[in-house]
């Protein structure tokens, strides 16, 4: 068991490539933390630095409060599973699982006992004499995890382990990994670019962009309280709509926000919140609206907004409605947004549709994209 800390770690590969910048993250003993972000944001670099496959440019990596910057990968006792499995094709499943133990010169009895144990946990007992090519993608992935775990590493690293699998198998193995984690309580750092995978697997999730952590939190915190526009757009499927807008003060001192052509009055809140919001009156800001916070029928306290439909995707249990706010007289009237509604909507290009939203579900971001806390 182990606790992992990245303390202000930066990694520069060359003059133009700062792959990680001031990266600080703690993974508690037994916790599963997911690093998620778009391609090239530095996720794999973070894993490789922790595994000792790359050296940090500055900052420290600690395992159980001990600085490990100078330790070799072997000394760190970390196991890593890659997306391509890297199994030995000429060896049986059993030999693949035995391999790391043989390399560590373990006793034959101990090898047998550990391989039996891990094969049992990963449901591989029936497959031990097969070669990797006689296995399905999901079974190969389990062997790769077994081979990593059989040595009982203190930290388990997974780099996009599901990306070679089809969608159905992905969700099955995701559930397997989740169960395995609940059983073994291994300190785990898991890398993916898929926010659904991140949200369903992580105790906590670190959202990254361009080498920097944008926000670390539980899946619920990231969804309910995104710190900035990047996180708001990245988390959720589809992500949050970010609509250029402006805040205006009404004659009675209430505050309204423009959504398309409509002015939506914000719910009265605390005095402190109103004072804070007053700074942004007549300023350009962004409104954040989750696709699933828009409805086709009226709800209590909801207000209506009119949009023009661009297209509709019917998904069986719901529809994704792509829409615009035309004729708003600004540069953004061509932006396309998405509503996710449970009705089956007819697709009529350019049709005017009315959606209902609850003003409480509106997020506000300043022009730099940071959340306006109220
Ligand atoms: P992906 O999801 O595509 O795997 P990632 O988030 O894991 O991306 P990294 O592989 O960590 O991203 O790469 C971060 C940045 O560092 C990228 O710009 C990449 O091109 C660069 N990089 C990674 N490894 C090296 C290397 N050995 N030499 C030079 N640049 C590198």
What does this structure look like?
The protein has 374 residues and is of the alpha+beta class. The chain has two domains: 4-228, 3-Layer(aba) Sandwich (Rossmann fold), CATH 3.40.50.300; 241-365, OB fold (Dihydrolipoamide Acetyltransferase, E2P), CATH 2.40.50.140. The chain is 26% helix and 32% strand. The chain is built from ten helices and 20 strands. The protein has helices at 43-51, 73-76, 93-103, 108-121, 137-149, 167-184, 195-201, 219-224, 229-234, 271-278; strands at residues 4-14, 17-27, 32-36, 58-63, 66-67, 78-81, 155-159, 187-192, 204-209, 212-217, 241-249, 255-259, 262-265, 284-289, 294-295, 303-314, 319-324, 337-341, 352-357, 363-365. The protein has a six-stranded mixed beta sheet with strand order 6-7-8-3-9-10, with helices on both faces. The chain has a five-stranded antiparallel beta sheet with strand order 13-12-11-14-20. Strands 15-19-16-17-18 form a five-stranded antiparallel beta sheet, with no helix packed on it. The site of adenosine-5'-triphosphate has 12 residues, from strand 2 and helix 1.
Task: Give the key terms.
20 strands; OB fold (Dihydrolipoamide Acetyltransferase, E2P); 374 residues; 6-stranded mixed beta sheet; 5-stranded antiparallel beta sheet; Rossmann fold; alpha+beta; 2 domains
